[in-house]
Amino acid sequence: DMKYDPSTGFVYVVAAGHKTSQSLIICINTKTQKEEFKLQEKDAILSCEISADGRYLLVNVSFQFPRVHLWDLAQRKMVKQYTGHIQERYMLRASFGGLKE
Fold first, then answer.
1. What is the pLDDT of residue 100?
2. Cα–Cα distance for residue pair 18/21, rounded to 1 Å
3. Which of 11, 64, 69, 78 has a Cα-to-Cα distance from 38 of 20 to 30 A?
């Protein structure tokens, strides 16, 4: 998965390890073409979505133990975890929505 934030010019790229279930989200500045930072997840990342204001990244993690993580991109830390959903045949795609998101 890959997301672009037009307000910052940053691209967020999901990179999964070949020999590990851990995944990274790499933030690349398209203006400088350099890596800004990385966010580490312990399990496979299935999808991600950036908020309209570019402040948050919502990440759907793991089929076996499904979780959705909300990352604060300014602080570069996970601020909320959502659980209780099941992913079997269909995958839940990370998405923001509603009034004012």
1. 66
2. 8
3. 64
